[in-house]
Amino acid sequence: MTAKWIEAVTGSLGDKKDYRRLKERQKALPSPYRETAEALERYLMVIGVVDGTTLVDMCRDLIELIEGAAANATPVRDIVGEDPVEFIETFVASYAGRQWIDKERTKLRDAIARADKGAGTT
């Protein structure tokens, strides 16, 4: 019972354990792959993926991609291309999880809809 209450407040304990294991795999990557994985993960944290399970899935997929590239000695630029922001934005768009900005987008749309409805009543 207590574990369910804690998870309701802090998120899935299983996700946290999975995330810690992924961080260990990330630390084990050779340079420059480790730095690439860290930079991509940092960006995921900044854009604010709300769903912890989705974030863990994204991190897992990134680690697997970068581990494979490291094993094959694939250059980092062959992974992320010339624009790493475009790479990670496209990567994030392929997941169904919510982001913090989604709430703000909804608020903006709702505010404009309310304003638009109110415009005809004056």
Describe the structure.
InterPro entries: UCP029876. It holds the Pfam family DUF1048. It comes from Microbacterium nanhaiense. The chain has 122 residues and is mainly alpha-helical. It has a single domain (2-119), classed as c-terminal domain of poly(a) binding protein (Orthogonal Bundle). 78% of the residues lie in helices and 0% in strands. It is built from 7 helices and no strands. Helix 2 runs parallel beside helix 4 (52-71) and helix 3 packs antiparallel against helix 4 (52-71). The chain is elongated. The model has no long low-confidence stretch (mean pLDDT 85).
Summarize the structure.
The chain is mostly helical. It contains 7 helices and no strands.
Write out key terms for the chains shown:
single chain; c-terminal domain of poly(a) binding protein
CATH architecture: Orthogonal Bundle
Mean pLDDT: 85
> Any idea what the radius of gyration is?
19 Å
Give the number of domains: 1
CATH class descriptor: Mainly Alpha
Element pattern in H and E: HHHHHHH
Count of DSSP-assigned helices: 7
CATH fold call: c-terminal domain of poly(a) binding protein
- What would you give as the CATH superfamily? c-terminal domain of poly(a) binding protein
Write the layout of secondary structure elements.
Layout: H1 2-10, H2 13-28, H3 33-47, H4 52-71, H5 76-80, H6 84-93, H7 100-119
Helix pairs in contact: 2-4, 3-4
Organism: Microbacterium nanhaiense
Protein name: DNA-binding ferritin-like protein (Dps family)
Pfam families: DUF1048
